[in-house]
Design brief:
This protein is of the alpha/beta class. Helix content is 35%, strand content 15%. 45% of the residues are buried.
Length: 241
């Protein structure tokens, strides 16, 4: 398994506090069966994340994880705010593609119900050669959310659901409704620490999602692997029931 959304880099945003915390997150992920984790620090105006330094940070973390004997690879990435898209340089976008594959970007919608600004961001990225993985649908529940997500998927985007939302009674039903509507394509942990909050795990949520999926290995393995490799991915309408 590959965790496409994890704030595992130490001391850079609101994620892991230090290297020990980061290595502990990797250890939890490995225990859950995760083989690779995309480090996705916030790329938005309220976090001073220097994109040009991310590759070195990922390399240092990989060295620490390897030294600790944890069988997990940390891959590059970023959680790109939709409001940051227009001002991001080509070099910045390339540096934060998921897995370093050069094609897919994890896109964070603005607060509140989804608006046309998200469509504009997806279209802007497409014109610049990138495709979008939309994060956090659970934060944007509104009467037209499903319609808006379906339109974005038709435009080439995929939807990434936070694994914990498939287990939390407060959000589970809504996320299962999205899955039943064929609008859940990949999962991510969105873990921020080994010490609090969501854990960097996916397996339990995938078991829940398996109740609606005819071919769970596409969601769990094939699609994430293609995303981090920079390959084309089309939503498998026939595979989600």
């Amino acid at each position: 398994m590959i965790d496409l959304h994890c704030h595992i880099l130490p001391g850079i945003d609101d994620g892991a506090a230090d290297m020990d915390d980061s290595v502990a997150m990797a250890r939890i992920a490995a225990h859950d069966g995760i083989e690779a984790v995309c480090a996705t620090p916030h790329i938005r105006h309220d976090h001073d994340v220097r994109v040009h330094g991310l590759a070195e940070r990922v390399a240092r973390l990989n060295a620490a994880v390897q030294f600790a004997g944890v069988p997990v690879r940390v891959l590059p990435g970023g959680e790109l705010a939709a409001t940051f898209v227009a001002g991001a340089s080509d070099a910045e976008l390339a540096a934060i593609t998921l897995g370093g594959g050069g094609r897919w970007l994890l896109l964070e919608p603005g607060p509140g119900p989804l608006t046309d600004s998200l469509d504009d961001a997806v279209a802007c990225l497409e014109r610049r050669g990138y495709r979008s993985v939309i994060a956090h649908p659970e934060r944007h529940l509104a009467a037209d959310m499903r319609e808006r997500l379906a339109r974005l998927v038709d435009a080439g985007a995929l939807v990434q659901v936070t694994a914990d939302t498939l287990l939390d009674p407060r959000t589970r039903d809504g996320m299962l409704e999205l899955a039943a509507a064929r609008l859940v394509h990949v999962l991510g942990s969105d873990a921020h620490s080994s010490r609090y909050g969501r854990a960097p795990v996916l397996a339990a949520a995938l078991r829940v999602l398996g109740e609606l999926c005819d071919n769970l290995d596409w969601v769990a393995e094939r699609a994430p692997a293609a995303i981090v490799s920079g390959d084309e991915v089309e939503a498998p309408w026939s595979e989600l029931a």
